[in-house]
Amino acid sequence: MTRRKRFHRLCRRMFLSVRGRATVVTVVVSGLILALVFVLMLLLARDALRNQTEDTARRTAERAAFDLLDGERAADALAPRRDEAPLIQVVGPDGRVLAATRPAADRPPLGKRAVRRGELLVHGQNCHPAREGCVRYFGMRLRTTRWGGDVTVIAAEPVPLLGRIWPLPLFLALLLLGLLGLIGWWTWRTIGQAFVPVDQIRLGMAEFSIRGLAHRVPVPHTGGEIQYLAETVNRTLERLDEAMSRERRFISDASHDLRNPIAGLRTRLEFALDDDDPDECRETLRACLRDTERLNDIVIDLLELSRLDSRAPVPLERVDLADLARREAERRTSATPIATRLESGVVVEANPIRLARVVGNLLGNAERHAADRIEVTVARDGDEAVLRVADDGSGVPEDARERVFERFARLADSRRRDPQGTGLGLPIAREIAEIHGGSLRIVDAPAGAPGGANFEMRLPIAAPASVR
């Protein structure tokens, strides 16, 4: 890899990746904050030096004034001691320098204006253009001295510049730069460690082509968003695996149910071609027609399931559930009588064709298993419409109440009573009920109902029609 490519890769990683951008932003913000801290620390250092300088000048002036009051000689009183300010002046009330140490002799009077105003204490800062730097001074007015009255003794200490004490700013700068580097490294490392589980999830996702949907990504036990992401991915994979398993079973069962009538139809047609008896040929053709009708029923159910799975929108209407159940019950031609208990005014918002198919499938299932009686009930239960279809057959075992709603699933009793069934009627009915916001399940028979299977569909009651 050339240097240019490595450089571009590094730039992309630093400025385009989440890790790089977060590190850059953190370093920039931290740099601004640390720069402000650096300036504040320099200002504090400057103020500390000024305060120390002024304190030295004050102590020197106080000592010199007390020595003069005690009657010491001027030369001894004005001679600076160790750790004292080197500049000492005695300024008269007119602002003239009466005496001074050698370093202060060629300087103009310090605090000249304050002295002329007669202030007892003078202090401030003086910067001489002809000399480097500035001095902080402090002075006291004395009533009686060898120079007369109202004389001010002033001591001054040069204010050291930060440039002259360069180790301090250099140390602060190096310290803050090191801290900034530590912040950048820690941010890069922490975010990198945070993204390790994400890389593991990515690698796990990349292995699906090899291991299949049964593979699961590792779940980091961090208790945060990344753990929730991994758990969500695994739940999604689990649903996809279940969907693929259902699809494989669906294709297998559909192929099996379609292969039988097709094979029978082909065999009968081959016999019909070899048979010269017109009556036998006509009977064979009738059998072929029955197989064709069964094939048509299977194809219609498969197409309906495909439309239901796609959730294609269908027009909805306000449907009186009692009227619809009454019409479907009157259409049945079975010898088993159908008793109805229908509460009027139970209105739902649904597609009438699909809802009629649900009722028809439930009635057809009841006719196959009923012994002497079928009962259809429509009632209102709070904000739900309830449709029940019950028969007095052998019923459905409790452990098989959910299995009958699986596609192509048929119990032994159902296969015995209707060998030509597809096992798609009840799954289609439940799918339609759930699409309309309801449910379909097998419940225990209430008091007074037949003792066989009791199918209950619940749908939301439609909102009242708006008055125009």
From TrEMBL:
It catalyses: ATP + protein L-histidine = ADP + protein N-phospho-L-histidine. Its main location: membrane. CDD domains: HATPase (cd00075), HisKA (cd00082). SMART domains: HATPase_c (SM00387), HisKA (SM00388). SUPFAM superfamilies: ATPase domain of HSP90 chaperone/DNA topoisomerase II/histidine kinase, Homodimeric domain of signal transducing histidine kinase. Gene3D superfamilies: 1.10.287.130, Histidine kinase-like ATPase, C-terminal domain. The chain crosses the membrane at residues 21-45, 168-188. This is histidine kinase. It comes from Actinomadura algeriensis. The lineage of its organism: Bacteria, Bacillati, Actinomycetota, Actinomycetes, Streptosporangiales.
